[in-house]
From TrEMBL:
This is Protein kinase domain-containing protein. It comes from Pristionchus mayeri. InterPro entries: CC_SR_Kinase (IPR050339), Kinase-like_dom_sf (IPR011009), Prot_kinase_dom (IPR000719), Protein_kinase_ATP_BS (IPR017441), Ser/Thr_kinase_AS (IPR008271). SMART domains: S_TKc. GO terms for molecular function: ATP binding; eukaryotic translation initiation factor 2alpha kinase activity. PANTHER family: EUKARYOTIC TRANSLATION INITIATION FACTOR 2-ALPHA KINASE, EUKARYOTIC TRANSLATION INITIATION FACTOR 2-ALPHA KINASE EIF2-ALPHA KINASE -RELATED.
Length: 244
């Protein structure tokens, strides 16, 4: 698949690898040609409908304002049209780019492995590599889960719903410090007097971690994230996967 991109992204970044591809876009690991730092740059496709483009920009701008020790920091957001040849034969619309700082300049030791670009190491990978009860010390799991809950509570406080909470979207920035990432499909929620007044209605996300209402395309609110948190807690405390 051709992922070559023109304009600002091509001018300012050098692609190192593709970190992930999903229904809402693609995530590149790319080096900024000016500051030489490596970033994750997520490209989200937006159809050529002004209302959809405006809504997507509002949500991404809300994400860029988040500042929490357990959330990957968003550095920059911009929008641009795809190459002209794409518009005629492959795609009509725009691309929204979200630049995130995901790499630390420190060398850490986790699970008998060393990682220079540490934020490539996810909780999902840790769970796969640590399958004995002795590796799941309760005090440590509680500490990790508390960090995850703190990040989600902060997102909800800022009137956002993550909608895709899962271990692979939780990264390590050091041995016991977790960061929530991939808020690219987060959506705004509106509330009055503590009660949600606007509910999402879309079954996007990862099926294994969806709440029943999210999976069935019914209306749902921030509690859909709480459902996913429960599954993550179970995976932390019991040597099993959500699929099991």
């Amino acid at each position: 698949v051709d992922y070559e991109i023109q304009f600002r992204f091509a001018a300012e970044f050098s692609i190192n690898q593709i970190l992930g591809v999903g229904g809402f876009g693609i995530v590149f690991e790319a080096t900024n040609t000016l500051d030489k730092w490596s970033y994750a740059v997520k490209r989200i496709s937006v159809q050529a409908v002004l209302r959809e483009e405006t809504k997507a920009l509002e949500e991404v701008q809300a994400l860029a304002k988040l500042d929490h020790p357990n959330i990957v920091r968003y550095n920059s957001t911009w929008i641009e049209k795809p190459p002209l040849q794409w518009q005629s034969v492959r795609y009509e619309g725009s691309f929204i780019y979200i630049q995130m700082q995901v790499h630390d300049l420190k060398l850490y030791h986790i699970s008998d492995k060393y990682f220079f670009q540490l934020c490539n190491y996810s909780l999902s990978r840790w769970l796969e590599e640590n399958t004995t009860p002795n590796s799941r010390a309760l005090s440590r799991m509680k500490s990790w889960f508390k960090q995850i809950v703190s990040a989600v509570a902060y997102i909800h406080k800022n009137n956002l719903i993550h909608r895709d909470l899962k271990p692979s979207n939780i990264l390590f920035s050091d041995r016991d410090h977790l960061k929530l990432c991939d808020l690219g499909i987060a959506t705004e929620r509106r509330s009055e007097n503590g009660e949600e007044t606007t509910l999402a209605r879309s079954n996007i996300g990862t099926p294994l971690y969806m709440s029943p209402e999210q999976r069935s395309n019914s209306k749902y609110g921030s509690k859909t994230d709480v459902f996913a948190l429960g599954l993550i807690l179970a995976e932390l405390c019991v040597v099993m996967t959500t699929s099991q």
